[in-house]
Recover the amino acids of this structure.
């Protein structure tokens, strides 16, 4: 109602708040009398299908490659005129968060001596606690 690639002008007098209010009140576009006469000109069913039945690619393998910082800077700053300082600042924060994340994961896999004389990883302790909580909630125990 507020304009898309399919209906760039949208409907006059209907912005995001009004559109949400009308959908909540009438449930479907076809039930809104205010716009009913313009609906035949708009492929609203096609738009609806994009959201309700999106095309989902069949992906067997997801791989995460090394981040190409130079290409990101070139694309955003040279081609799209973003501020170099802001982009490099954001990328620096990204680099730092990746480093911190890797260090945190390494800590999970360090071994700890438990009171029963066995070595178990922090990750094992976490998983044991998590599954215990789930079991208790399923059995309504406290």
């Amino acid at each position: 109602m507020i304009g898309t690639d399919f209906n760039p002008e949208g409907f006059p007098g209907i912005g995001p708040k009004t559109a949400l209010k009308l959908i909540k009140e009438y449930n479907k576009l076809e039930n809104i009398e205010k716009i009913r006469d313009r609906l035949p000109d708009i492929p609203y069913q096609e738009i609806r299908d994009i959201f309700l039945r999106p095309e989902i690619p069949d992906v067997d393998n997801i791989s995460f490659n090394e981040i190409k910082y130079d290409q990101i800077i070139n694309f955003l700053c040279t081609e799209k005129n973003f501020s170099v300082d802001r982009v490099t600042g954001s990328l620096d924060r990204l680099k730092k968060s990746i480093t911190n994340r890797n260090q945190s994961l390494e800590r999970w896999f360090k071994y700890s001596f438990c009171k029963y004389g066995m070595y178990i990883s922090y990750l094992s302790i976490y998983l044991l606690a998590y599954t215990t909580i789930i079991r208790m909630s399923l059995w309504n125990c406290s």
The helical segments are 16-26, 44-52, 69-79, 84-108, 122-138.
